[in-house]
Amino acid sequence: MATLLTRKDGDILVVYFQDVSIIDEARIAGLGEELLELVKNENEKIVVNFENVSFMSSAMIGKLIHFSTRCKEEELKLRLCNINENVMKVFTLMNLQKVFDIDTDESDAVAKLKKSGWFS
User: Fold this and answer.
1) Beta 77-81 vs 21-22: how paired, if at all?
2) Are strands 77-81 and 102-103 parallel, antiparallel or unpaired?
3) How far is residue 101's CA from residue 99's CA, in Å, rounded to a whole number?
4) For the segment 20-55, what is each residue's pLDDT rounded down to a tens digit?
């Protein structure tokens, strides 16, 4: 069962979580697999929008780090956006702003990817 929603904005794939709280182990495993499928589907630029998510477990953060690593290995550009204040506190405590490019909202993330090119 697909749990991620996606849409294209030009050459950018925008991904949305449907879950408000991401804590169930089976759900996290499924989300991790879905994220990795996005890497295989020839997407060059991906924005992951967290607007619906108010809580996620550390296991999901691990899946996101693995997803980021795979994106870097495949030379895909990845940005995260709309991270809830509570989730952002966890990201900050774990120093994840050094792992991820994080934007306040989707329009900023998309704009930064649209202007990224050969020299950025």
Assistant:
1) unpaired
2) parallel
3) 7
4) 999 999 999 999 999 999 998 878 999 999 999 999
Distance CA 29, CA 11 (A): 27
Helix (H), strand (E) at residue 3 = none
**Alpha-carbon torsion angle 66, 70, 75, 77, nearest 10:** -40
Instruction: Name the residue with tokens 């995260």.
Output: 80
Q: Six-digit token pair at 28?
A: 């996290």
One-letter amino acid of 32: G
How does pLDDT run across 55-93, given as a tens digit for each residue? 999 999 999 999 999 999 999 999 999 999 999 999 999
- Top CATH class of 4-113 equals alpha beta
pTM score? 0.91
Domain ranges of the chain: 4-113
SS3 40: helix
3-state class (DSSP) for residue 38: helix
Nearest to 1 by CA among 13, 19, 20, 23: 19
